[in-house]
Amino acid sequence: MNMLLTTTAPQWAAQLADRQGHLLQSWPWGEFKSHFGWTPYRIQVDGAAAQVLFRRLPLGFTVAYIPKGPLLDWTDLPRCQQLFSAIHNAAKKQRAVFLKVEPNVWCDNDQTQMAQATQSYLHQAQFSPADTIQPQSSILIDISGDEAAVLAAMKQKTRYNIRLAERKGVIVRQGQADDLPAYYQLSQLTADRDGFGVHGSDYYRLAYEYFAPDHCALFIAEFEDQPLAALMVFRQGTTAYYLYGASSNSHRNLMAPYLVQWAAIRWAKAQGCTDYDLWGIPNADPAALEAEFANRQDGLWGVYRFKRGFGGQIYRSIGAYDYVYNPLLYKMYQLRRRSTPE
User: Fold this and answer.
1) What pTM was computed for the model?
2) According to CATH, where is 3.40.630.30 located in the chain?
3) How far is CA 292 from CA 138, 194, 285, 287, 296, in A?
4) Residue 217 pLDDT
5) Sheet with 313-316, edge to edge strand ranges
6) Is the domain 138-316 a CATH 3.40.50.720 member?
7) Which has the least CB within 10 A, 47, 89, 178, 212?
8) Is 304 exposed, middle or buried (0-12, 13-18, 19+ CB in 10 A)?
């Protein structure tokens, strides 16, 4: 078994591209997260790889986390066994209490067979279903067609709101690093209004610094020079990700969030992306989403009403799985998490 615990950024990028890997398995994402308590380890084993993030706990213990990975063909059982043997060795050396894996695998649509293979392997390898860190469900928009086709797939009201914002004089521009304070101010307004948690200003600044200009763009929608909405869009391979967005309490009738989202979709198309991931929505089946979205504002329900208007298809990942190295400390960790207010 040829195992590498170290590699270079170009080598990792090639592995990521070969496996059509997720943004959260990219080299810059690991470096970015290293500023916020995580230490990235990149492990490669004969054509498979995993970026494992370790976070320190008291008394020298850690937790290990593989977001949207590993980079692996889950139907290749020997390769799975080789890679996870290397991951477990690294985790034990880091005194991990447990390993959390969130595979980048959808459990429905065109990936059903892969989902079954992934879940089967994890079950046989003594992983257990667990709470997710990343949103389990999302909406993916097919942006491979021309702009007219993308607009045609949207809800009529969303198209109307995009055009209304344009008619009313909302202007969208691509921002730069010195616009990040304005973005952060909008994010605080959004958090206060909608009850969302937000990161500190350094989080958004560093995300922009690590990924812009090739893999990240900041867009700001303004009316009479007043910022009304903003978002940060990222890309990896042919997929763009709408990770962070915010809006003002002012001039909400101008529908600025719709126009700024359209600008981000157009940017993603120009970058060669064919899919646009709207990121988190409530983890419910499509029938329940449609039956309840008009009456609920808790959690991700408030943003679902907005996101659903852009068309696309609902996808649900297989979720997260934990492998426990220290059962007693794992139980204590879980109890502490559940007793700590969000």
Assistant:
1) 0.93
2) 3-134+318-339, 138-316
3) 16, 18, 11, 9, 6
4) 98
5) 171-174, 216-223, 226-236, 239-247, 275-281, 137-142, 313-316
6) no
7) 178
8) buried
- Residue-wise pLDDT tens digits, 309-336: 999 999 999 999 999 999 999 999 998 8
152-155 long-range contacts (CB < 8 A, ≥24 apart) are 153/311, 153/312, 154/309, 154/310, 154/311, 155/308, 155/309, 155/310, 155/311
- CB burial of residue 60 (10 Å; 0-12, 13-18, 19+): exposed
Separation between Cα atoms, residue 57 and residue 42, nearest integer Å? 20
Q: Which of 164, 141, 167 is nearest to 152 (CA)?
A: 141
Confidence check: pLDDT of 291 > 90: no
Share of the chain above pLDDT 90, in %: 84
**Contact yes or no for 71/20 (Cβ under 8 A):** no
The CATH architecture one would assign to domain 3-134+318-339 is: 3-Layer(aba) Sandwich (3.40)
308 — phi, psi (to 5°)?
-60, -25
d(CA 118, CA 319): 11
